[in-house]
């Protein structure tokens, strides 16, 4: 199924149905379909060939997301560019991806101006919402005849995603139509998409608050295949989020754990009607089991985990709402720390350091096989070979599979702390810390120590209006997971440094503590 086929499938179920909605104004499926044809034709007239790379630099915006389908209809390759990155970071990505065309919104005109001298291969620029000097607006650029194009073969690259440059030069993850189709099939077969009398004609209504350049964007494709409506939020705002769910009778949404923690503390949550929700996805980072159990009550029995990465998008393992409960309806606390079970179209194993597969219950690197896995890193055969050693995709995550097939992620390999000769997984310590009622968020890192080699160090962000001593925190963790894993150093910070998508930046924390 080609990337543009999700739009066309949705349009076949009703061209007049709302497709992309922002601030109460909708583009219908017919509107988006027509726009995609015009964009494809204009790309052809501008000399952008099938297979060439086209970037989109925009916040959450229906028109910007609609151009994705024009890029796909042309047979070009979509490259989402995060507007929260610096000019240098984005110039590096556009250069790495060999982008020849860039769509952008006028708030980022200055950013584009800073990047242009470093991007001689960029031949076509289009400002989506207004003319920008010599750069035409989308409306002006589209003037001219449209034409049809054949879909790309299923194993051709349709999307390149940057991995980010926190550990050196970023890499470009090449995703094919087959990768996106596998992800969409897993989404539709693994999570509830039942008819809801409160929604328009039983169609799903998906609320996208998280950036469409990341997980929230690719989740639109399975929704659109069912003719569903995507309600777009231009910026993160939990007040508005809680207003939009009952207003639109939202059935599906996605947030990373950090925003869910903030939602659970929101004063309006208890009074908000969330009964339309069928599936509230969480992922992109580990979620505290204690907070997850709280969410199952405060938000409802609709929480749904997904685990993946750019190289194997979204659905390596899945935990739909029903798996959070035992057959008798009680919360399955023993499962809440897991990432669910491997998807039915994905093979997951645990690998030792020598490349051998480990038995159930043994800890090692999580490795993946199947049509979900990327085609490789763009123009980086060495990194591709390293990531696919021994015939499996290597995730870089340490974990194990239990007797029931549930996958438990204990840490990123690089985040393990070796203290006094013992391996301590930072994620396990963080889960224990998050059980304390005063802790809103936390991060655990290892710092050099003359006695222990590395000392377990915890940095905490407290709930508003609370206080706690560092001695109390250490004793709290020690009582739960033992003295070896209890932090030897505890820091209280007003906030934690975060990435553009809300992930806590442990490298920044470690650097600050060592400075």
Question: Describe it for me?
Answer:
By secondary structure, this protein is an alpha/beta fold. Among the domains are: about 30-175, Rossmann fold, CATH 3.40.50; about 420-515, 2-Layer Sandwich (GMP Synthetase, Chain A, domain 3). Helix content is about 30%, strand content about 25%. The strands form six sheets. Strands 2-1-10-9-11-12-13-14-15 form a nine-stranded mixed beta sheet, sandwiched between helices. The chain has a four-stranded parallel beta sheet with strand order 4-3-5-6, sandwiched between helices. Helix 1 (about 5-10) packs antiparallel against helix 2 (about 30-45), helix 2 (about 30-45) crosses helix 3 (about 60-75) and helix 14 (about 425-435) crosses helix 15. The mean pLDDT is about 90.
How many E-type strands? Answer: 25
The CATH topology of the domain at 30-176: Rossmann fold
Helix/strand-derived class? alpha/beta
Query: Mean pLDDT score, rounded?
Result: 90
Q: From the 3D coordinates, which CATH architecture of the domain at 30-176 would you assign?
A: 3-Layer(aba) Sandwich
Rg: 23 Å
Overall, the morphology is globular
The biggest sheet, with number of strands, parallel, antiparallel or mixed sense and barrel status, is: 9 strands, mixed
Q: List the uncertain runs.
A: none
The termini sit apart by: 51 Å
Approximate strand percentage: 25-35%
| Highest-level CATH class of the domain at 30-176 | Alpha Beta
Which percent bin holds the helix content? Answer: 25-40%
Strand order of the largest sheet: 2-1-10-9-11-12-13-14-15
Number of helices: 16
């Amino acid at each position: 199924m080609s990337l543009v086929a999700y739009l066309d499938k949705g349009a076949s179920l009703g061209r007049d149905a709302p497709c992309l909605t922002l601030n109460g104004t909708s583009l219908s499926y017919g509107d988006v379909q027509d726009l995609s044809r015009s964009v494809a034709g204009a790309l052809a007239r501008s000399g952008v060939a099938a297979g060439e790379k086209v970037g989109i630099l925009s916040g959450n915006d229906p028109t910007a997301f609609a151009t994705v389908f024009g890029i796909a209809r042309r047979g070009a390759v979509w490259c989402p560019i995060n507007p929260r990155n610096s000019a240098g970071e984005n110039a590096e990505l556009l250069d790495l991806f060999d982008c020849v065309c860039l769509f952008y919104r006028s708030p980022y005109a200055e950013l584009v101006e800073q990047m242009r001298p470093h991007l001689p291969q960029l031949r076509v620029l289009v400002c989506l919402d207004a003319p920008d000097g010599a750069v035409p607006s989308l409306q002006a650029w589209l003037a001219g005849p449209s034409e049809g194009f054949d879909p790309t073969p299923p194993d051709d690259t349709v999307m390149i995603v940057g991995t980010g440059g926190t550990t050196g030069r970023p890499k470009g993850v090449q995703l094919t139509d087959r990768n996106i189709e596998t992800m969409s099939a897993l989404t539709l077969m693994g999570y509830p998409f039942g008819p809801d009398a409160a929604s328009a004609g039983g169609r799903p209504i998906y609320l996208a608050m998280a950036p469409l350049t990341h997980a929230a964007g690719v989740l639109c494709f399975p929704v659109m295949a069912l003719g569903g409506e995507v309600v777009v939020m231009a910026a993160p705002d939990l007040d508005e989020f809680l207003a939009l769910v009952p207003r639109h009778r939202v059935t599906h949404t996605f947030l990373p754990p950090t925003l869910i923690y903030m939602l659970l503390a929101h004063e309006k949550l208890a009074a908000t009607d969330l009964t339309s929700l069928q599936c509230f996805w969480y992922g992109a980072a580990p979620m505290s089991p204690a907070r997850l159990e709280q969410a199952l009550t405060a938000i409802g029995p609709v929480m749904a985990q997904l685990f993946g990465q750019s190289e194997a998008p979204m659905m390596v393992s899945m935990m739909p709402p029903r798996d959070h409960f035992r057959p008798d309806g009680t919360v399955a606390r023993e499962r809440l720390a897991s990432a669910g079970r491997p998807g039915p179209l994905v093979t997951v194993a645990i690998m030792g350091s020598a490349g051998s597969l480990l038995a159930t219950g043994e800890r090692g690197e999580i490795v993946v096989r199947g049509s979900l896995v990327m085609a490789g890193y763009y123009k980086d055969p060495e990194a591709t070979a390293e990531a696919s050693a021994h015939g499996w995709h290597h995730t870089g995550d340490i974990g194990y599979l239990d007797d029931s097939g549930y996958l438990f992620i204990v840490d990123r390999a690089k985040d393990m702390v070796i203290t006094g000769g013992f391996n301590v997984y930072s994620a396990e310590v963080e889960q224990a810390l998050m059980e304390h009622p005063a802790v809103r968020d936390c991060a655990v890192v290892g710092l050099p120590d003359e006695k222990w080699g590395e000392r377990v160090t915890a940095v905490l962000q407290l709930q508003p209006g609370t206080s706690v001593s560092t001695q109390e925190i250490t004793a709290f963790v020690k009582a739960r997971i033992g003295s070896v894993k209890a932090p030897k150093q505890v820091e209280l910070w007003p906030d934690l440094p975060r990435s553009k998508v809300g992930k806590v930046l442990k490298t920044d924390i470690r650097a600050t503590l060592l400075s």
